[in-house]
Every structure is written in structure tokens, then in C-alpha cells.
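TA notes. Do not distribute before section.
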Amino acid sequence: MFLGPAIFQQVVEVTPLVAIDLVVRDAHGRVLLGLRRNRPARNFWFVPGGRILKNERMDNAFLRLTLEELGKPMLRSTARPLGVFEHIYLDSIFGENIGTHYVVLGYLIDLPAGASLVPPAAQHQEYRWVSPGQVEADLSIHQYTGDYFAVLPSRSSAQEC
């Protein structure tokens, strides 16, 4: 369902949005981050993801978001839930005077060895892979992305599930 900009602005002003974040990890334990183009979190490195649309089933949202954000559709059943997170920003796509509140479902996608992704550049200016040790020292990585690293299972325990 498409909402016009004025209606969507009202929604952002008065209610939380529900989103899915994709924590994509390669065989070396590095996580894919994109440099955000848009508010909120513009100019920060962030995991790919996006909001769930009205009347969109979570499985369909996951397929759509993995295609849009990663360039490859993936099934939600192949990902591991990381938990529910809350992201509150002082700004929004509508500027500095309207904050954004997200309730985010975090999912871990472990890529098999040799797998590659070619994410489209719609939401992010560029992409890079980062190891957990790089996150804390890099202030350009958004705090909310850093929160995902705190709950990441080891690569071997993720494969056992």
C-alpha cells in the first residue's frame, strides 16, 4: 500500500515503524555495512534493512528487503532471529524536526564460504565488510549497528542451529 508523503509524515510523527535489519556475515566473520544516504542515520555505516509495509507479511517483507538491499532474494526461514531492537532518532526522512521510532526485528544471515553479494546502491553510498573488532573504535559505525555485534553468536554456533 502506497502512502502519499503527507500521510507517511503523519505516521512517522505519531507511531513507531516496524522494520527488519539484515546482519549479513561472511565466512570470515565480517559483517556487511552500507554508508547511509538518507535520514535517519545519514552518513553513518549501518546494516542493510528497511521497514515492513502495511499489509505486507513478514516473509514477503524479508524477500523484498533482501532483494532491494542485498541484490538477492532470501527466505526468512534461512536467517537466524537476533531479537527485537528499538531505534529512536531525533530526525527523520522529513528533516530535523520530526523524530523516527523503529521497532526492529534483527536477523542474522550467514553466507556460505565463497558466496558473494552485489548490493544495489539505492539506500547506501557504498558498502564495506567489517570485523567485530573494528566496530567499537569506528565512530562512523552507528551505535545501533554496534548493538547487533553485541548479540552475534559465534559463526560455529550459528551453523549448529
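Switch to the second chain here.
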Amino acid sequence: MRHYKLKKRELAARWVAAHQSLLACPICQAGFEAVTDQGLRCANGHQWDFNRAGSVHFLTGASSENAYDREMLAARRRVLAAGLFDSIIAAVAKELPAAPQRIIDVGTGEGTPLARLNQVRGEIDTLTGFDISKVGVQLATQLAPDQLFFSVADLRHLPFATASWDLVLELFSPADYAEFDRVLAPGGRLIKVVPTGDYLRELRALLYPAGDAHRHYDNHLVKERFLARFPGARVVPVRAAFALPAALRADLVAMSPLHWGQAAMEPNAAGLASLSTVTLAVELLIAEKSAGNY
């Protein structure tokens, strides 16, 4: 049921009140005792306010500024809304049980992947996303505000209750495996999505000369660390070709950190035209808490 006539702050308060047991104070990890339309307070008196965008700023000193500005995130929103990551989201959904899941999206950015997962899964799950970027979270709150809750939070001090969540989804984001372990319930899953060498290879070829290190991507160290920590983990490859509309080719360049490299070339019209199809090539690294991986 949609409640868009309510203010986003009120929608966020409803979500938190309905899922209060899944959250915890990022300072002391105590549960929240009081939830109003203005904010929430933990058992030890720490207070957190809802803002007008319908999110909570849980950071306690860490900066919420990063290199992902509004323009970059808006470009990302347009490209992902067109379906760039849909093959990845479909693969993640395939790994989940049919029963409703409680899902955390790590480094959610502007929130589109989590919103797409919600649509693919039929709006049955409890979903929340967090990011250190205030701008990203502000954009994320535009997406299904009656179903998705977003917050500005620190990866190393998660505002989530211990052993309460079924899935931690990490899509191209940093990790804190100890915190993921803390918040996952027994039987819960961690799905880490990492690019392979062919990921957006067409964009790399456009931006960098053949001999430049940015032309290629190697994820073997990230993958080796994950598999060493979680010996029972599975690796699921995902590969798809995405037809990129002409109107979104400049946005693909703008949304990717690839164009930040010192040797990055500025693509001309002919170069952008070459991005008619781009390669999505990633691996899902999947660990189950019940498998004795932790």
C-alpha cells in the first residue's frame, strides 16, 4: 500500500517503528526504545533524528563527503534505471530463498540496485541501504519511500541489531567482515559482487591507451581474501551484454570512477558512439553463515 501523501519523515518513522528490533544504536549497539516522527532514541539515551528527506544520519564524526557528487550519482541513477545492473540483480535474486528476507545493501549509493531487487522480488522483503555519502542517500530516499529505508552510516559501526538480518549485499563496495558477521542471523548470507577483467571493457578501452594499467582490472587479491576468510564460499559468474542507449553514453562515463585516472582521455562523439554495447562481467562471492565460514 502506498502512502506517498505522508511526508518522507513520517514514512521513515513508520518503517523504523515496524522494524525496530532490526536496528541498534551505532554507538553502543543498544536497541531503540522510542520512535517518533522526529527521531529515535536508544536505551542509553543516544538520539538520532529523521531529516526531511526521510533518512537518518548515523555518522558520529566520520565525514559524509566523498568523490561521488550529485552530478555523478544522478548520471548513475539514469544508467541503472535503464537496466545496466539488471543482470546482476537477477543473479542475486536467484540466490535468495522464496521466503521474505531481511536485506542490508552496503554502500547503497543512490539506491537503484536495492530498489530493482525489491521489484524483482515482488516487494516481499525488508530492505535497507546505507552509505557514507549524504548526497547519495538523499537521492535514494526518492525511491519507494514507503518500502525502503536509507541512512547515512559508517561501515565499521552499523546501526543494525546483532544476528537479525538474512542478507548483506555488497555491490562494488568496501567491506567490514566482522560487522557483517555481527548483524547476520544464523543461516544468513553475504553476497559480495566484484568485477572481473572484462567488466565495462569497452569503457576502459575508450578512456585509456593499451599500455595503461587502468585498461585492465584484476580482482584476484579481493577474491583470494574472501575465499581465505570463507573457505566454503561459492563463486557465481555473471556475464551479459547491455545495449546502452545513445542518450546515456556520456552518463556511463560520468558515473564511473574510471574517468578519474590521471591518464584518462576525454571521449569524443565517435568514441561515445562506440559504447553502443557494454559488457557486464562480475562474480558473486557467496558465503553462508550456517556453513561454518565465520
